[in-house]
Amino acid sequence: MLRITNLNAFYDNVHALKDISLEIQKGEIVSLIGSNGAGKTSTLSCITGLVGIRSGTIHYKDKNITNVPAHKIVRLGISLSPEGREVFPGLTVAENLKLGRYSKKGNTTTAYERVYTLFPRLKERTLQIAGTLSGGEQQMLAIARALMSEPELLLLDEPSLGLAPNIVLMLFELIKEINKQGVTILLVEQNANLALSISNRAYVLETGRIALSGISQNLLHDENIKKAYLGSV
Ligand SMILES: Nc1ncnc2c1ncn2[C@@H]1O[C@H](COP(=O)(O)OP(=O)(O)OP(=O)(O)O)[C@@H](O)[C@H]1O
Ligand SMILES: [Mg+2]
Predict the structure, then answer these.
(1) Which atom of ligand 1 is nearest to the CA of 205?
(2) Mean predicted confidence (pLDDT) in 23-31
(3) Residue range 102-128: average pLDDT?
(4) Nearest 10 degrees: CA dihedral of 189, 51, 153, 151?
(5) 108 CA to middle of ligand 2, Å?
């Protein structure tokens, strides 16, 4: 569904992404893990057209989308839940959701129904100002807003960030459910254990390069990976 080939991206002279190649098949959850500054968000920004690509290509469903601008990417069926949630704090839950729909024409009722079924807590709070939601609820809203455009590929940037463990577990169950409903997912996480536990395959980024990749279950049980990335031996 998505194929990134030998991607290089820079911020001025900083070579942030070095020859990144990765693939996502339809229906998969693929995780992209790595520590602070590894290039995870930059990879998503290249896919969504927010950061310019110096060399290499990105194909989505066999269409070359390299350097296609952000608003067109959403229309093609790719949607991002950004790092740090970035909900509009002064707008209500319903208004935030509506903004996730801006690129899409047609009836919005089904889209609202779908996200409210997934996230009943948002349904109870449709008129609440987003800035007053708890961290977990804001994360739900960011994901729900991304789903409003009915994407085929959902990009999640660190959904677990700053949330209590029980909230994170609940959120990850919902991510699995979204995937079961037919949405392919690229999950960016610093929490490697968690990401590996729900994904089919994973790529590990280290200072802008893919250091290794494989089936998530295998990586989870690999002694070297445990030592280097999972904080245990
Ligand atoms: N707008 C920018 N201008 C200059 N450098 C940037 C910019 N955005 C990111 N970088 C640099 O690119 C590198 C990769 O950053 P990126 O945000 O992709 O990392 P990340 O893996 O998402 O990290 P984190 O886990 O902290 O979110 C870092 O060295 C960062 O300083
Ligand atoms: Mg990031």
Answers:
(1) 21
(2) 98
(3) 90
(4) 120
(5) 31
Q: Is the pLDDT of residue 168 over 90?
A: yes
Q: Relative to the alpha carbon of 34, which ligand is closest? A: 1
Q: What are the sequence ranges of the domains in the chain?
A: 2-77+151-229, 89-150
Amino acid letter, residue 100: G
Angle between helices 165-180 and 135-147 in degrees, nearest 10 = 10
Could you identify the atom of ligand 1 that is nearest to the CA of residue 44? 18
The best mutation among 15, 17, 32, 40 to test binding of ligand 1, ranked by most ligand atoms within 8 Å of the C-beta, falls on 40
* Cβ 160 vs Cβ 183: under 8 Å: no
- The ligand that comes nearest to the alpha carbon of residue 203 is 1
Q: Rounded to whole angstroms, what are the CA distances from 228 to 1, 28, 35, 127?
A: 30, 25, 11, 45
CATH number of 2-77+151-229: 3.40.50.300
Residue 39 C-alpha to ligand 1 middle, in angstroms? 6
State the average pLDDT over residues 60-74: 94
Pocket of ligand 1 (CB under 6 A): 11, 14, 16, 34, 36-42, 83, 190
Question: How high is the pLDDT of residue 233?
Answer: 39
Which runs of E-coded beta strand occur in the chain? 2-11, 14-24, 29-33, 55-60, 63-64, 78-81, 153-157, 184-189, 201-206, 209-215
Q: What is the mean pLDDT of residues 93-106?
A: 88
